[in-house]
Amino acid sequence: MYTILLALHVIAAVLFLGPVTYAVSRFQVEAVAAHKGDERAAGTARTLHKVTSTYGVLSLLAPLLGIAVMFTDPGTYWTDGRFHASIGLSVVAWALLIFLIIPRQKKMAGALGLLGPDEVDADEKFRVSNWDKAKGQLSMFGGIFALLWVVIAVLMVI
């Protein structure tokens, strides 16, 4: 069971965290280009927001499967602090994604009119007053998100 869970943990990390990290790093660039009138960038920004939202939620499988791995071989994992640090850092990264990155992306996508009717509440209004500031903030949060996953990956292999 340990080997299966470990394999699923690694596969979930590669399949979900890689695409969401790329989407988080690229969305704001495409959104600003779309704001300046680039139609191709508008389609790309919409796709990147969908990837961030969908894969972001699915990326929770990686730390959950990691915790399951800990329960299958408690002698090794429960006494090694790097695994506890990894869990803590993944919670921070996931919270950053859910509470800061996705809402800001949604605001930018909504201001561009890229959201479908199922993605918007009837009374929800989207407005971005400073596109450069919004881009900078998303770039910063996306960089922190990516850096956290790099640190977690290093902790997993040392």
UniProtKB/TrEMBL annotation:
Keywords: Membrane, Transmembrane, Transmembrane helix. It comes from Corynebacterium frankenforstense DSM 45800. The chain crosses the membrane at residues 53-71, 83-102, 138-157. It comes from the Bacteria. This is Membrane protein.
